[in-house]
Amino acid sequence: MRTGFIGVGNMGGAILTGYAASPQGQKDQIMIFDTNRELCEKRLKEVRGSMTDHVSDLVKASEVIVLGVKPQVMEDVLEEVARAYQPDKLIISMAAGISIEFIRKYLGDDAKIVRIMPNTPALVGEGMIAMCPGEGLSLKQLMAAETILKSVGKVEEVDESMLDCVIGVSGSSPAYTFMYIEALVKAAVANGMSQEQARMFAAQAVLGAAKLVMESEESLEQLRINVCSPGGTTIEAVRKLEKNGFMDDVKEAFQAAVDRSKEMTRQKKG
Fold first, then answer.
1. Does residue 107 share a domain with residue 141?
2. Main-chain phi, psi angles of 239, to 5 degrees
3. Tell me: the pLDDT tens digits for 98-135?
4. For residues 32 and 16, is the Cβ–Cβ distance under 8 A?
5. CB 163 within 8 A of CB 264
6. CB atoms inside a 10 Å sphere around CB 221
7. Which of 133, 161, 189 is the last residue of a domain?
8. pTM value?
């Protein structure tokens, strides 16, 4: 399907380049727009699609429109989209706090909308994307959305009411994980390891642990126990983390992200 991308920054650009590189992403069927013309031209070199200077031209030419713009400019963008939008066109929106109901205020009650929440590992093809289909979508449109999103990671369909939770558990959580890796790297460097080696050791350990979680049928608690030999080094580290409230800190950080997401949605409704 002819696909247009409005906003090709970090996340929009990640989905654009991932889709363009996939077998389904026919480059002559891709059109892009961004207010940053230099960025737009850069993306154009990467994907070899076409570029337009007007949102309305992109909407007219596309069957699927991916909105990769920030929440604070979404209203202005939707006003532009509405000028050329027809209800047989699929809208994919990734803006936090912008509900399907909110988008329909601009595009009409019969607008075909999929709301998504990706995360930054999509930049390396390992994203986790929540997909919330609105009402009235055809099977072809659902398949088109899944095809685009699966080009940059795993896709899981959830109810829109769960998107605040998704933000806490996967949308924002790469930042928590980067902080954890950063702390390991700093500690390793303080103990004499080079920055480059410390970064590799810490990142690979996290990558491997995540893969174990994905592939093992054991509980997370049992996976942790498996590493903790009695009287060994790991159990001492785990006890220190428990004493300092590590898991409680993570849960509180998760909740802070969720609460902020709910607040953003309320602000848009108000």
1. yes
2. -60, -40
3. 999 999 999 999 999 999 999 999 989 999 999 999 99
4. yes
5. no
6. 8
7. 161
8. 0.89
Burial environment of residue 190 by CB neighbours within 10 A (0 to 12, 13 to 18, 19 or more): exposed
Q: Which range marks the domain in which residue 183 is found?
A: 171-265
Q: How far apart are CA 216 and CA 90, in angstroms?
A: 37
Same domain, 142 and 99: yes
What one-letter code names the amino acid at 35? Answer: T
Residue 185 · residue 202 · CB < 8 Å: yes
Residue 51 has a CB neighbour count (10 Å cut-off) of: 17
d(CA 47, CA 253): 37
DSSP helix/strand/coil, 159: coil
Distances (CA, A) of 31 to 25, 57, 125, 192: 11, 10, 21, 50
pLDDT exceeds 90 at position 139: yes
Cβ within 8 Å of residue 128, ≥6 positions away? 118, 119, 121, 153, 154, 156, 170
Strand partners, 66: 5, 92
Of 54-58, 77-81, 257-261, 262-266, which range is least confident?
Answer: 262-266
Query: Which of 118, 134, 161 represents a domain boundary (last residue)?
Result: 161
Shortest CA distance to 50 belongs to which of 28, 24, 81, 80? 28
| 86 close to 109: Cβ distance less than 8 angstroms | no
> What phi and psi values does residue 22 have, to the nearest 5 degrees?
-80, 160
State the Cα–Cα distance between residues 122 and 157, nearest whole angstrom: 17
